[in-house]
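S1.2 Input.
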Amino acid sequence: MKIAVTIWGNRISPVFDSAHTLLVAQIDGGKITRQFYTSFDPESPVHLINTLKSLEIDTLVCGAISRKPADLISDQNIHLISFVTGNVRKFLDSFAKARTVEKKHMMPGFTPGYRNAY
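S1.3 Output.
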């Protein structure tokens, strides 16, 4: 599985539209086996989608996101997990092991089962 997380410093970016960097991680056997950073333009969801597709990203994790970019991403068969918060390393370690979002990483508004439950 290959996952991308919008980041701001060492945290998951609280607002999708504020992020300009993705942390991309390959997860195999419950562990992160490879990771790297890449930049993107949040004002161009089409550019982001092209970037995600070229990197073969299965899942995008972010904080709050507007409906239009969320729909565009989901329409491209990229699994979107939104309304996630916290330290990106702690989140990735936890997600790699269980492939779920722990309660401590959920923002208010997180609704499991609606686009954001893996």
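S1.4 Remarks. The first helix runs from residue 45 to 54.
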